[in-house]
Design a protein that fits this description.
51% helix, mainly alpha, 65 residues
């Protein structure tokens, strides 16, 4: 099941920020965090991307100093 790239682009600006958010959520899922979406996938990384695409994961940009 492919993650819709268009939806990911709408949710998070920039590939670098997407990678950071997805990696953090993947780590949480691997450590036992509950799923936020009901999709058929076994990889935490794919699940994290689906959660982002469905709008279940929010992030806050930090101020640049």
């Amino acid at each position: 099941m492919d993650v819709p790239i268009e939806e990911l682009r709408k949710k998070i600006d920039g590939a670098y920020q997407l990678v950071i958010v997805a990696a953090r959520r993947t780590r949480q899922l691997a450590e036992g965090a509950p799923r936020l979406v009901d999709v058929e996938c076994s990889k935490p990384s794919t699940l994290a991307l689906w959660e982002i695409a469905k709008g279940k994961i929010k992030y806050k940009e930090q101020d640049k100093k």
